[in-house]
Each structure stands twice: as structure tokens, then as C-alpha cells.
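Technical annex B. To support the medicinal chemistry partners, we prepared a structural model of the target in complex with DQA, based solely on the information shown next.
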Amino acid sequence: MVVILVVNGPNLGRLGSREPEIYGSQSLEDINSALTAQVGDAAELKFIQSDDEAELISVMHQAVDNRTPVILNPAAFSHYSYALRDACAMVTGAGLALIEVHLSNPHAREEFRHNSVISGVATGVIAGFGADSYRLAMDQMMTLLGRQ
Ligand code: DQA
């Protein structure tokens, strides 16, 4: 069965209580459960949340080694982590899909959020739809995998 990594970066383990006016009231567990229900038997999802840049880089290396596509919310690392960007480039460079997700629309927020160093190496980006951003990303991931 196809395996998809769903990876969330720093502070996203606090969803639900973290700035709910921006990020909504659902916890990461709520979002992950909805994704599990969405894919049913069509894919096995592996969920990873880490506040640690090195760990996220190592997850991308594992994605390459295991040939696993990735849905990634890089959180604040989106805006400045060239190291995570280079790791993501290895994922898409290996021919694996990597969809970047944001709950909020970073372009409508503070200027430092307007640039993502990840987007240029992602397969595509979905932002601004709250928890639905993950649902849309998963929908597109299943479409991409079906096309292979
Ligand atoms: C975020 C947007 C980032 O700017 C922010 O640092 C996050 C969450 C989002 O999902 O909207 O932590 O990636």
C-alpha cells in the first residue's frame, strides 16, 4: 500500500490552543484523524510533528530513501530554513511529490511570512483554507499518486 508522510513543523503540535483566530480550533490530532478518514484504505499515513529542524531534515532524507511522498507544513521554517529547503529539494528531485501546506495565507500576513524558501522546490502549495488546506493537499496527493 502507498505510504504518505504528513509532516508538521514547529509549534503546530499546539494547534487548537495556538492563536485560534488564525489557525482555527482543531488540534493536530483532529486534522490527522480527518486525513485518516479521508484516505480510508487507499493509503497508509505516517504522521510526524517536530519542532526540531534537524529532525525534519532527517525525515526528508527518510522520505527519499523509502520513496515516500510528503505533505509538509514547514511552519516558520518555511520562511528561512535553507537547510530544510535543500532537504525538500532532494525529495522532489527524486521524483517524489511534496505538497507544501499552510493553514493561514502567509501572503496576507506579516511581511516576513510572504516568502517561502520551500515553495520553489515543492510540487505545489496550498494555503489559506485552515484545516481544509490539508484535506485539499491530500486530495491532490491521491490524484498525483493515481496518475503515476
Ligand atoms: C503556517 C504559517 C507560518 O507563517 C507560521 O510560522 C506557522 C504556520 C500556517 O500553517 O499557516 O507556524 O505555516
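Notes passed to the chemistry partners:
Residues 132-147 form the longest helix (16 residues).
The beta strands are 3-8, 44-49, 70-73, 98-102, 124-127.
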